[in-house]
Amino acid sequence: MVKIADLPSFDAADYLDSEEAITTYLNAILEENDDALLAEALGDISKARGIN
Fold this sequence. Notes:
Layout: H1 19-32, H2 35-48
Helix pairs in contact: 1-2
């Protein structure tokens, strides 16, 4: 059985490597209509662009 601690960590910013990827990600997040999720997504996008 695989333990959660043994799984690699996931960072969405690692996959936001183009404007198209960022746009697709942001559109999917906006469809959820969740303010907390949007705030986290904006952090992911900032991290992907090197803005901290």
